[in-house]
Amino acid sequence: MRQLLNYKWPIAIVLIAITIVLFFLSPNLSQQAENAGTFQLPASSDSKLAADILEEAGAGDETISVVFTYEDPIDEQTQKKISSIAKDIEQEDSSVTKVLDPFESDETAEQLVSEDNKTVLLPITVDGTNDEVNELANRIRQDVISEDTTAYVTGEAIINHDVNESAQNGLEKTELITVVLIFVLLFAVFRSITTPFIPLIAVGVTYLLSQSIVAFLIDWFGFPVSNYTQIFLVAILFGIGTDYCILLLSRYKEELMQGHNVEDAIVNTYNTAGRTLIISGLAVFIGFSAIGFAEFPIFKSAVGVAVGIAVLMVVLFTLVPFFMALLKDKLFWPSKTSISHKDSKLWSAFGRFSINKPILSMVIVAIIMVPLLFTYNDQLSFNTVNEIGQDYESVKGLDAIEEGFGKGDSLPIKVIIQQDKEIVTEEYLPYIETISKEIEKNKNVDSVRSITRPAGDIIDELYVDSQLSQVGDGLNEASNGINDVQDGLTEVQKGLQDFNGQIPSNENSGGLEETVNGLGQINDQLGSISQSLQQTQNINRASQQLGQVQQQLGQIQQGLSEASSEAGRASELSGGISQLSEGIGSSIDGLKEINNGLKDAADLVSEMGKSQALHDTSVFIPNGTLENKDFEPAIERYAFDKRKAVMLEVILEDDPYSTEAINSVQEIKDIVSRTMNGTPLEDATVAYSGVSSINNDLSDISTSDFTRTVIIMLVGLFVILTILFRSMIMPIVMIGSLLLTYYTSMAISELIFIDLMGYDGIVWAVPFFGFVMLIALGVDYSIFLLDRFKEEASIGVNEAMHHSMAKMGTVIITAAIILAGTFGAMMPSGVLSLMQIATIVITGLLLYGLIVLPLLIPAITVSFGKGIWWPFKQKQSNKS
């Protein structure tokens, strides 16, 4: 330290110069956070896989919606106005790839107009970045939608942008409130106008330098970043940095009051409090570095705080001693004395009680904290909308959709199925329909939209029972048609008999008699064919027999034509025979039409017999069906990647953000996997998209990350504390007390936000960040106390603990209040997750500073006696 003091001016100048240069040269950290996105899922997650599939296939366009709401059912004029707005939006920007007019067909109106005709959706597909999507949304609001129209623009990209914007607005408020709060608290502690500026300058330099370094790391090496990065840098660096400054300044004041000169006072301060500082800083650094082992980028983004802690240590050991040496005792001007170095009467009293009555002290802590633990339910919320409240237009749009169409319709789950060859074929679509049908059976699913059910309703004509029913109807019609032909031929036969009676007996009429007899035989055949068709439904045989009958009728018709020619001298007779011949011709045409129908039916039945898909699914799509124009809109909407991939939209009964929806996603995944097993699609790639799917991934990832990071963090802290304190008992006591404090704080937070304020849970990211913050920061205070205890240990365990509590009580309480205050500055941010994290940290710090540290830790420590140093031997400490 003496060497550093010799070069204090060059060091301070270089440090401040580097800070200024990097501040102006570094990338914008706020912009980096927004570009990174609200959700940064690992590549292995289903939602990320779905996004990649859509992006690679050129189908990753963003869909936003304009939601029109009216007090009364819309009329024809309003419909025309909305259609006109749709055209205007389509021409508004080149990034708009499609605008779906709700009134272009009955099918679209059924999907996009609510049942009460008061809410209308106008979906817009945009090919652009999130920034371009939000710019378009702004132009739609300003230029396209008139002021007299109630309409909201909403969508995933817009909601996420609003969350980012809310977080940045919250950061600005937090920064200002934090600086003012720290100044006021420091002024109250040190009774000095000068003193508060030292921590603020030191921490300010730390924050600016850390922010610049983190921004460069993000730019150069892909360092993790999120909205939380900058906010946590502010809260933690200002909070813990101020705490460390208080520790240094308090000890520096003690040294000056003992009559040491300035240089000796600084050296002694860093030999004692500086050692505590290094231990504390190292513990916090390890805590936040452990986050780097998390898989989830949003969690990992808090690892930037570790960079800040490292920078803070440099600043505290360079810039703070510079000000100490520069200002000397004027650092505390105009105060001649300071309460910061006086013994804490409150902690001294706590110490006497907990040291003299350790069992009772532990019982009191248990009575206060254990009942709260039993109220803890680990109830999480994945509702992004709660982060920003109801004042944003995007949220109002969602509310309007939910009111008009149901909660699940606003943000459906998208099931993506992709394979290496074309999937939109008669062979594969029956399996897609079966998947849709099985998903819809789930009690939490309202409907499923896909190629085979574009409006969400089952198309009965695709199912074999309906098709066979149609075939049966066709056979009945064929049988009726044969009967009609029989009736016609009977009339012809009767007419021929009449004509045969008019021919003189001396003329040859044998030809007509044969014709009459032939028609009689054919009628008998037709009756037999009709009866056989109804009984056996042997379509092929009936078709063959009808073909033979057609040939016989053709011969008879030819014979009648000859007879008509022979009867030429009797024009009346000739004309009658010609008419009868035409009747036979009509019968032949009728039989031909019936026969063609039977052949089509036979072909259909033959196709059915050969179809493996029909055997597997009871769904059959005849050849040529997909070329039908009626199928084009469904294929265009639900197929992509050159028809090698399809999408199913699953509309849930529940709110897409709810825990029930997240559970439903897992159920749907199980259904799809089970249904595809053993089918031609079993090797296809399946991915899931949509808010509920993303939240399902978040739930899985956050749970596994929390467990892994907690283990790494606690093991790391245990190892470093064991080495530094030369005890395995002390680290266990520290960590155990912090875990007790954390879960109690979580229980209190649930009571506040769920039971009192009515939220559906604690935001999913809060337990992770709350744990890291409280453990990493709370361990500081136990280090402050126990390192002083270690320093005083030569006078005996009980006396050393009481003396340490008296000396460190004010510092710890002051530091806890300041750190709680910096997190309290998050409250006005309006961002729910930040408010909840702040509540956990504030509650935890106050519990730790007022109950656990003064009552529990001393009681446990003195209960162990000299065994507190196990398995090491106690080292004799020499006080300076």
TrEMBL record:
Intracellular or extracellular location(s): Cell membrane
Superkingdom in the source lineage: Bacteria
UniProt KW Coiled coil keyword: no
GO cellular component, one term: plasma membrane
Predominant location category: membrane
Entry's family note: Belongs to the resistance-nodulation-cell division (RND) (TC 2.A.6) family. MmpL subfamily.
Name the UniProt record assigns to this protein: MMPL family transporter
